[in-house]
Write a structure and sequence with these properties.
mainly alpha; 1% strand; two-stranded antiparallel sheet; 12 helices; 77% helix; globular; 2 strands
Length: 351
């Protein structure tokens, strides 16, 4: 019975990972096709935020995800609003990068997220990493540099946009960990809150930037209006569904397995975009992409080992001179009298 249960879990995770990879690849390919015909990245972002807002509420209620959130207005303005701002800007710049450069190159640049995470965590949270973590960043930097130098469709706006988007997602990961720890809000409820807030906050900006241009762009809708509307709908649905599947995978596997699966997903997206969109690449370009993804895998392993080492240190008994109460091991997630609601800090909705 135990073997049957284990086999069933492995097959479930495998099926979900394949589904995740297919949905993510389809979302990126459709997003590229959409932006080629419809050069309005802010509108594409707003459609995705609308999808999160419309679909998440009913679906999460049916799924039984808790709704109660005790967040003060002060904390809401201090943490939630900036997170919504970051989500919107990171999404817009991500779409600009996919619009300006090939999907394969954009995702190679996004592989630099560990670099941004390490640097920003050091500056903001004063976190120090092990030498293995710092060393694992080298192949990422070298790989991205090689891919950039050999990219046949290089565009400086696309590169800068991809870097800004990657930095934005890194900041979201850092501050979302704090929100999850401070409030105990469910991962997907936070996704819903941020999507809905970003949608309403930036609706006036969208109206100012894109609405008038869309009204005047009659030729676009006369030539391929149905195609654009269909691609917008599919892009919004796939982007939302991608987050749901990612969370499902995360709930079934360890943090390291999820990190490896996420890096493998990026490699799958790059390969799928090269095959389906047929953008020209060189052998050196492919080597750079592969080296960057390999660096991400090394970083995930080094980071996991560092976290495990910290846990073992916390579980060690106190000195003999300590009180009887202090001689007991420190419980995981409970230290100095405060419960760490989400001590592993995993974030499935920034993918």
């Amino acid at each position: 019975m135990a073997d049957q249960k284990h086999t069933k879990e492995v097959l479930t995770v495998l099926a979900l990972c394949i589904l995740w990879y297919v949905i993510s690849s389809s979302n990126n390919v459709i997003g590229k096709m959409l932006l080629n015909d419809f050069p309005y990245p802010v509108t594409v972002t707003m459609v995705q935020l609308t999808s999160i807002t419309l679909y998440s509420g009913p679906f999460f209620n049916l799924w039984g995800i808790r709704r109660f959130i005790d967040i003060s207005w002060k904390y809401y303005l201090k943490m939630i609003v900036p997170l919504a701002l970051g989500k919107f800007l990171a999404s817009v710049f991500s779409h600009v990068s996919i619009w300006k450069v090939p999907v394969s190159y954009a995702h190679t640049v996004k592989a630099t997220m560990p670099l941004f995470t390490v640097v920003l965590s050091r500056i903001i949270l004063k976190e120090k990493q092990s030498w293995k973590v710092y060393l694992s960043l080298a192949p990422i930097i070298i790989g991205v540099a090689i891919a950039t130098l050999t990219e046949l469709s290089f565009d400086i706006i696309g590169l800068i946009s991809a870097l800004i988007a990657t930095m934005g997602f890194s900041l979201q990961n850092i501050f979302s960990k704090k929100v999850l720890r401070d409030t105990g809000v469910h991962h997907l409820r936070l996704l819903h809150i941020l999507g809905r807030l970003a949608l309403f906050l930036f609706l006036p900006i969208w109206m100012f930037l894109d609405l008038q241009s869309l009204i005047q762009d009659q030729e676009l809708f006369q030539s391929n209006g149905y195609r654009v509307v269909l691609l917008l709908f599919l892009d919004g649905v796939l982007n939302w569904f991608q987050n749901i599947v990612a969370f499902s995978v995360l709930s079934l596997v360890t943090p390291l397995t999820y990190a490896v699966a996420s890096a493998s997903k990026r490699l799958f997206v790059i390969a799928a975009s090269l095959i389906l969109l047929q953008n020209p690449v060189t052998a050196t370009n492919v080597i750079g992409m592969a080296l960057a993804i390999f660096g991400v895998l090394c970083y995930n392993k080094a980071k996991y080992d560092a976290n495990e080492a910290k846990k073992k240190q916390l579980l060690l008994p106190m000195s003999k001179n300590s009180s009887r109460f202090n001689s007991y091991p420190v419980l995981n997630g409970f230290h100095n009298g405060s419960l760490n609601v989400n001590s592993n800090g995993r974030n499935p909705y920034f993918v």
